[in-house]
Design goal:
mainly alpha; 64% helix
C-alpha cells in the first residue's frame, strides 16, 4: 500500500499534466483554425481579384480627357477603390506574424498608386491599370506560394466556362408577354 502523500502527489501531477496537455491541445487547435480562416480569406481575395473585369489584360492606349469622356475611367477607379476595401478585410483576417502581410500591403500600395496616378494623368489611366494588374499578379503569386490552400489566379482573367451538358446559353430574346 502506498502512503497517502504519494497518492496525493501522483494525483496532483497527473491532474497538472492532463490540464497542461488539454491547454496545449486547445491552443494548437485554435492556431490551426486561425490559419485555416486566414487561408480562406486570402483565397477569397485572390478570387475577387481574379473576377475583376477591370483588371483583364489589355493593350493600354491613350484616352484623351478620360476623366470627362471615358465612362470606363470612373468605373475603373471605383472598382480599384472597392478592391482596396476587400484587401483591408483580408488583412484583418491575418494571424499575427503572417507572411501575407507584406503582399497585402503591396496590393494596397498598388491600388493607391493607381488611384493617384490615374487622377494625375487621366489620359494614361489604362497604362496605370495594367501596371496595377502586374503588381497585383506578383502579390497574388507570392500569397499563393505560401499555402497550398490558396489558388494562384491571374487578376482579371476569369472566363465563363461551358454550360451544363444539354443546356444552351440563350442568344435571342423571346416574344414579349402580353
Amino acid at each position: 500500500m502506498q502512503p497517502l502523500w504519494a497518492t496525493l502527489v501522483t494525483a496532483a501531477v497527473g491532474a497538472f499534466l492532463g490540464s497542461g496537455a488539454a491547454f496545449a491541445s486547445n491552443l494548437l487547435a485554435g492556431r490551426i483554425g486561425d490559419r485555416k480562416r486566414e487561408a480562406a480569406a486570402l483565397n477569397e481575395l485572390v478570387h475577387e481579384i481574379h473576377f475583376r473585369r477591370v483588371l483583364r489584360r489589355i493593350e493600354p492606349r491613350s484616352s484623351p480627357r478620360a476623366d470627362v469622356l471615358d465612362p470606363a475611367y470612373e468605373r475603373a477607379r471605383h472598382s480599384v477603390s472597392t478592391l482596396r476595401g476587400a484587401i483591408r478585410v483580408a488583412r484583418q483576417a491575418l494571424v499575427p506574424g503572417s507572411r501575407s502581410l507584406g503582399p497585402l500591403d503591396a496590393m494596397t500600395l498598388a491600388c493607391n498608386t493607381f488611384l493617384d496616378d490615374s487622377e494625375a494623368e487621366p489620359s494614361r489611366y489604362e497604362l496605370h491599370l495594367m501596371q496595377l494588374q502586374a503588381r497585383l499578379n506578383a502579390a497574388v503569386h507570392t500569397i499563393a506560394a505560401s499555402s497550398p490552400r490558396i489558388d494562384d489566379l491571374e487578376p482579371g482573367q476569369a472566363r465563363l466556362g461551358p454550360s451544363v451538358r444539354g443546356l444552351e446559353v440563350p442568344t435571342e430574346i423571346g416574344e414579349p408577354l402580353l
